Amino acid sequence: MDEETYFPDTDLDFSFTSTTTDRTFPSSSARSSLARSSLTLSFNDRLSCSTTTTTTASTTNFTNLHHRNWDPRWSAIKAATNLSSDGKLHLSHLKLIRHLGTGNLGRVFLCQLRDCSSATFALKVIDRESLSNKKLSHVQMEGEILSMLDHPFLPTLYAHIEASHYTCLLIDYCPNGDLHSLLRKQPGNRFPLSAVRFFAAEVLVALEYLHALGIVYRDLKPENILLREDGHIMLSDFDLCFKADVVPTFKFLRRKSRKSRRNCFAGECFGSVMDSREEEEELVPEFVAEPVTAFSRSCVGTHEYLAPELVSGNGHGNGVDWWAFGIFIYELIYGTTPFKGGSKDSTLRNIASSRQVRFLHVAEVEEAGMAEAKDLIEKLLVKDPRRRLGCTRGAQDIKRHPFFNGIKWPLIRHYKPPEVVGGVARKRGHGHVGHVKRRRWFWKRLDSLLMRNRNKGSLNLSSSYYDYVHNTYNNKPRKHA
């Protein structure tokens, strides 16, 4: 990380001119006026005393229910709000450090609480005066959606502050950048297949959660997938989302299951593939919450990731996210998108045409599991959304695809991130040291117990599952007995 630059506490002025990336598809004529506008953000007493409202940060009941209520950031915010005269978080409580980037709607800054330098956040600042009415509706949508989220792979909204003509969203800071930048650091701009499975699995779980809330994302791309300090992913930018009704269903299905025997990929952190010689039928619980009735005619998104029904302008629904998921997996494997042309117009023509997905012939890419990856991509990139994988039953059908065999979905947040070029090792704060040592002691004791009882047959525990949980909490790979 670059050396941090601190500014005087009394008056923080930061001026930037916004920029846009060439992969962003214009959704409004206000894009050009936004690109020319500049923002001067002043954190002085006059601004912080203007009309300010805060949600979630000062609400004790909300933090107690949040899955990350143990996070020191919540404690720091609670301490700041308790000392505030009105029990709310104001801009004057924040110390601006530096500019992180510019998005479609506003700028993002790295900041800290003034009295707690260990609690860092990302502050998304939106100048409402520079936006059209349509863009303002996107701002409102993003704030509304962020306030709904409570998931390991989605951002936490710590505070929503309205000050003067600015809307400020205080969210998680991800120090490891975005997945697109990490992809460009890889040899040939491609991830190994084991890393593709890891990132794709976490994105799939995040999309499943959004769809269960009736939220269609519409902006999936590596640039919008940030990397937390522990190496896991976090989706960002929800201004292009729209909401729809969803009716959850739960039922038991009869399916044939196969016993796991061996690892799917050498060195893979996930589980194992299935042995076709042993099959048995079992009742499998299935929960489906997919917004199948979602419908919109807005043409928004990134042109290389747009689904055919979105390009046509005849209306689209939840299927655009599963199309984008197929494009996403393709780009992680091949370093480019499958329908990319010489210009934006030619790319859109390729998407809207009857041309099917074509795979590049790269010798280095052809590794174990590639056949399953290609099959999944083909099923996701079906141009008719009625036949596209995931459009009817959502993420459940995609999770059952052979490409994801061996993944234990309830435990995915504890998987060890892949070691890739330019990646960073998992870091833990000093407050977690004792907890980590206790967990390692527990698994070492379990290891000793299993070794003593393995020959006696007193414990019937799946070896592949044990290999996973043991390696999750130990950096060194475990040798098989």
Notes on the protein architecture:
The protein folds into three domains: 159 residues, 2-Layer Sandwich (Phosphorylase Kinase, domain 1); 196 residues, Orthogonal Bundle (Transferase(Phosphotransferase), domain 1); 43 residues. It contains 14 helices and 15 strands.
Write the layout of secondary structure elements.
Elements: E1 13-17, E2 24-25, H1 30-36, E3 38-42, H2 45-48, H3 60-65, H4 72-83, E4 94-102, E5 107-113, E6 116-127, H5 133-146, E7 159-163, E8 166-171, H6 179-184, H7 193-212, E9 215-216, E10 225-227, E11 233-235, E12 242-243, E13 249-263, E14 272-288, E15 301-302, H8 308-312, H9 319-334, H10 344-352, H11 370-380, H12 395-399, H13 433-453, H14 463-472
Helix pairs in contact: 7-9, 9-11
In short:
GO terms for molecular function: ATP binding; protein serine/threonine kinase activity. Residues 94-404 form the Protein kinase domain. This protein has 481 residues and is α+β, with helices and mostly antiparallel strands.
Keywords summarizing the entry:
481 residues; alpha+beta; Phosphorylase Kinase, domain 1; Transferase(Phosphotransferase), domain 1; 3 domains; five-stranded antiparallel β-sheet; two-stranded antiparallel ribbon; globular; disordered N terminus; disordered C terminus
